[in-house]
Amino acid sequence: MSVSFPPGFLWGTATAAYQIEGAVREDGRTPSIWDTFSHTPGKVENGDTGDVAVDHFHRRTQDVRLMAELGVNAYRFSVSWPRVQPTGRGPAVQRGLDFYRGLVDDLLEHGITPLLTLYHWDLPQELETAGGWPERDTAHRFADYARIVAEALGDRVVRWTTLNEPWCSAFLGYGSGVHAPGRTDPVAALRAAHHLNLGHGLAAQALRTQLPARAQVSVSINPSAVRARTESPADLDARRRIDALANRVFTDPMLHGSYPADLLTDTERLTDWSFVHGDDLAVIRHPLDSLGINYYSPSVVSSATDSDAPASERNDGHGASEHSPWPGADSVAFHQPPGDVTEMGWTIDPTGLYDLLMRYSREAPRLPLVITENGAAYPDKPAADGSVHDPERIRYLHGHLSAVHRAMADGADVRGYFLWSLMDNFEWAYGYGKRFGAVYVDYDTQARTPKSSARWYGELARTGVLPDC
Ligand code: GBH
């Protein structure tokens, strides 16, 4: 049975500045931590960098036209902080802001709703040199930057997002070190998490002050759909610990104005959390207009000490790093969830998305939800005639959109869905080897070719009808 989504539903694609723009030295842009990291040997597969990426900085108008041709009605992009405020302090660079003003105008001209994300991981290197997110001052610098962008684009952008996936910034950037800036210090990671929360709250305040009343303020998190391997008390406790470090460390202060008591206890051997100051929690609990949810795959955990799983089915949840992104949770083992995987090795399981949507609709009943990222990497290759067929991606999207529809039928207030990604791009530590795009990019010529999933998704966006698979 085909199902319908409501009129006005946002059907978009998503990207991030460093993954697509290139032009890293143009118009006064200074390096971000991702320029530094990707140019450090051994950090990114194949030595890939975002120097050129998919040259979106020079192809912006053509890329927007492509979106319009596909039929999507929304686009989520991020602003490169070092492009509009080099070094992260002081006055804005007008030509940096002009690029985004031009992008937004192109979108509006085609009736495409822009969703602007202020921070998708590209901290100005100079702020990292001054200590980065583990330092409190970075949160204040972020609020200043938010004010600058709001001043420049507040007349034409309605939907604003502060941070993308603060978990990745804090725990992959400062804990496991597989993301920029590549530090591996569990205390720095926890401090970073708090200062990202604080930066979110301060930036949200700055946006409210600067923007017209119709503006909408949001944040995009990557909550973990974390399950216990068994119902044993030890495995349930492992689940609780990871839920605290993956999810509640952000959503408790943002939605409820407190840090989880169990998290403070779990991490007490590392820190007393005295970096949380008096008013911080009131600042962080800023009323939001929606919550952005990025979802790819669920997690399964158990107690490491209790686990009787064969070692081959176990991993430590560290990814490629010997350092943990889970401070204070050394007693937890991660397991590959059952089911088929994408090229990332991530298990395909739409139930995880359903569960998260239901969880946050219960936890924050009046807060609309937007799926700000969902998608899959596959080893796409053009056929002899140049076309690119990706039936696996269509199946992935179909499964997850069915789960979204089911959650809506069960009461979740979901306002939109953004496919990650508009086009193949720089997949962080994996470089250009992993393709998430609905549009294929030939990295030699920069030619764009919509894959069959792009056609399929455009049709869905135009009709609002999810056909049978
Ligand atoms: C998002 O990150 C990003 O916002 C986006 O820029 C990126 O391109 C996209 O997803 C695709 O990766 O480490 O094996 O235990 C998602 C990052 C991926 C981090 C899943 C946590 C857990 C799986 N998340 N990962 S694993």
Descriptive notes:
The chain is α/β, with parallel strands linked by helices. It has one domain: TIM Barrel (Alpha-Beta Barrel). The chain is about 40% helix and about 15% strand. It is built from 15 helices and 16 strands. Strand 12, helix 14 and strand 13 (about 415-420) form a beta-alpha-beta unit. The N and C termini lie close together (about 10 Å). The model has no long low-confidence stretch (mean pLDDT about 95). The structure holds ligand GBH. Ligand GBH binds near residues 168, 294 and 296. Keywords: Glycosidase, Hydrolase. It comes from Streptomyces pratisoli. Its EC number is 3.2.1.21. This is GH1 family beta-glucosidase.
SSE blueprint:
Blueprint: E1 3-4, E2 10-14, H1 17-20, H2 33-38, H3 56-70, E3 74-78, H4 81-84, H5 94-109, E4 113-119, H6 125-129, H7 137-153, E5 159-164, H8 166-176, H9 186-210, E6 216-221, E7 226-228, H10 233-256, H11 261-266, H12 280-284, E8 290-294, E9 299-303, E10 314-315, E11 332-335, H13 350-363, E12 369-374, H14 391-409, E13 414-420, E14 439-441, E15 448-450, H15 452-463, E16 465-466
Parallel strand pairs: 2-3, 2-13, 3-4, 4-5, 5-6, 6-8, 7-9, 8-12, 12-13
Antiparallel strand pairs: 1-16, 9-11, 10-11, 14-15
Helix pairs in contact: 3-5, 7-9, 8-9, 9-10, 13-14
The structure holds ligand GBH.
The site of ligand GBH has 14 residues, from loops.
